[in-house]
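Table 4 source record.
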Amino acid sequence: MNEQNKFRTLWVMVISLTFLNLIMMGWIWFNAGPLGPMNPIPPEKMVEMLHFDQNQRGAFHKLKERHFHEIEPIRDSIRLLIDQNYDLIKTDNLDENLLYTKSEELARVIIRNEENTRRHLFEVRKLCNSTQKEIFDHEVLDLFKKQREDPKGRRPRAPKN
């Protein structure tokens, strides 16, 4: 191989590796961030994982639309209540009763959000055949459980006895 071909091959490799590096950085930036209740698993991913047929896809999209229609105001309430709780810090004298009341209100809304999500997942699971239920139980639900993990990959601490 002459010098010009070696040089050309080297540049192709450098450009390819740079391009691959940019793709990996983009993937990490957009997909590996923290997940949580405000960052749901994309519905398309569930459809793909469960291999829904056309009828199941139609029923799923109706469930999804209804769920997001119900859940959006709940999530807006969560954001608003969190903001209000942090605004309490701006006062010179913290009213413990008000803090407790606001925290209780936030807890009730979070519970409503979780209940709505569980009900939605139950309805999605009812759409599945037996093979799809196995996938749902082991893969889809694992994704929902992983949403709650620490963004740095640490597991939550076990409670002290």
